[in-house]
Design goal:
two-stranded antiparallel sheet, single chain, 10 helices
């Protein structure tokens, strides 16, 4: 329960740092079937952490085409790591929902919609984070063992 609680804290911190892709990755990991089956672990999780998790899930929800996340992204100041899946969904809907040609002519409206999505995503590549490297953490991450699901599950 302590590790799950810590990961929920990491997701919250990612949101505070405007690293929405990182937050979504943590939430996806917590939703992994192997983690989800840890009934006793989830049962021991403090109520505050469960509420925090629900809050993060609500914020990152696909509901309304990621409305809460979009609203935050459109009002923030960089740096930011946006959730790439949201932009990929936008590109897919633009591609699949609009014809490439209209009356045998290039559909420039579709190309404009595509460019708007790409331009919005690219704007976040212009500003870097001013974070201070912590060598002890970097070393720990480089040396941490990494097992595949089958190996980890067999332990």
């Amino acid at each position: 329960a302590a590790v799950v609680g810590k990961l929920i804290g990491v997701a919250k911190r990612c949101i505070k740092l405007q690293n929405f892709n990182g937050a979504m990755e943590v939430i996806a990991a917590l939703g992994n079937a192997a983690v989800h089956r840890l009934k006793r672990t989830w049962g021991e999780l403090p109520k505050k952490k469960r509420l925090d998790l629900e809050s993060v899930r609500t914020f990152l929800s696909e509901k309304g085409s990621f409305k809460l996340l979009r609203d935050r992204i459109h009002s923030l100041q960089p740096p930011c790591v946006p959730y790439m899946g949201m932009y990929l969904s936008d590109l897919l809907f633009t591609e699949e929902g609009n014809p490439t040609k209209v009356d045998d002519k290039v559909n420039f409206a579709k190309l404009r919609m595509t460019s708007v999505v790409i331009r919005e995503f690219q704007q976040f590549q212009q500003t870097v984070y001013a974070l201070t490297p912590v060598s002890a953490i970097q070393s720990w991450l480089r040396e941490a063992p990494c097992d595949d699901d089958a190996t980890a599950y067999s332990r």
